[in-house]
Amino acid sequence: MQLNIQLSAHFDHIDLALNYQGTLQGIVGIFGHSGSGKSTLLRAIAGLSNNVSGSIYYKQQCLFNSKENIFVKAEQRNIALVFQDSRLFPHLSVLQNLQFSRQRSRTKQLNVDEIIALTQLTPLLDKKPAQLSGGEQQRVALARAILAEPQLLLLDEPLSALDQQNKVALLLLLTKVQKYLKIPMLYVSHSLAELQQVADNLLVLAQGKIIDHGNIHHVIHRLNQQQHSPIHQQTSLSLVISKHDKDHGLTALTLSEKHTLYLPLLSAENYPVGSTLRCFIFADDISITIEAPHQSSIVNHLSGRVSAIQPLNQHSMLVTIVCNEQEFFSQISVWSYKKLNLAEKKQVFIQFKASAIRAFANPNNFIEE
């Protein structure tokens, strides 16, 4: 699933210059703030934008090449795009919307009833779009896109209009659909937490250029250390759920054979023991001590070694600590940095509350910045 892109364009406030070569597997996140070029990139791949120069090749097929005057029409690219709004046909029922998409499929290999069950639409089939909630409409839009049997699925801020509960439900559904159907997806969002939930790899756009790409955790940790980072510094994690402790309202995550982390209790139905949880900890939620914490109300504490120290601004420092081969990032004041006499290779302890481990799946402690 090789994707090769070389695009350039000039808009009101941005010069677009995107160059990317890579293999698409699973869900690839595309992150950037407004005006970075995310949606323009998706529209160019989908064939909905012809005001760019360059070339696009997917699976060795030329979709666009301005020098050779090649432009494959959108309807001939076999690429589906799900927008922020569902864009369903308002005069058709849910079932009729799905059947319309089914008719456009070239192969018709997917079973309609199977996709309806997979996207949990059975009770909604006779309803018109106006009778559906926002989350229900997006489920229909996703099912409609799938039934076109695309070779690539593009998602442009598909959850931006939904509340937290519906976002969680749609993200769970999206990951389930991708694993079941194995359709490669490009997922655009300005929400890093949203992308961490579903994407294994990440492209980061800023001012019309790709400034980083790769494994999502590695990219986020590299962004932490940029001089003017586009994100709130954080530790990004994928950890296996080892236990749900209902008596104490905690879910346990395995960091290593000897070390467990705790966060507020998650739904055992949606996040069973043995499954992997994507989560993050803001750097200013992690504190550093020189001595091991004793008799503390803070449940998470680890020993580690300082691997890097850098100033964030006039008053704060970003300290990288390696604990059990995992990098953790702590933002502390310059005053604390001097008081603790921190230096690279120094042995320290870090600690953070259960509520500091933020999971998109847990709206009770989820805060995104």
Can you put this structure into words, describing what you see?
It is built from eight helices and 20 strands. It is an alpha+beta fold and about 375 residues long. The chain has two domains: about 1-225, 3-Layer(aba) Sandwich (Rossmann fold); about 235-355, Beta Barrel (OB fold (Dihydrolipoamide Acetyltransferase, E2P)), CATH 2.40.50.100. The strands form four sheets. A six-stranded mixed sheet has the order 7-8-9-3-10-11, sandwiched between helices.
Beta fraction: 25-35%
CATH topology of the largest domain: Rossmann fold
Category from helices, strands and their pairing: alpha+beta
Helix-strand string:
EEEHEEEEHHHEHEHEEHEEEEEEEEHE
Return the domain count: 2
The count of strands amounts to 20
How many helices does DSSP assign?
A: 8
CATH class identity of the largest domain: Alpha Beta
Shape: globular
Major β-sheet profile: 6 strands, mixed
| Helix content estimate | 10-25%
Which spans of ≥5 residues are poorly predicted at pLDDT below 50?
Answer: none
Strand order of the largest sheet: 7-8-9-3-10-11
The radius of gyration is 23 Å
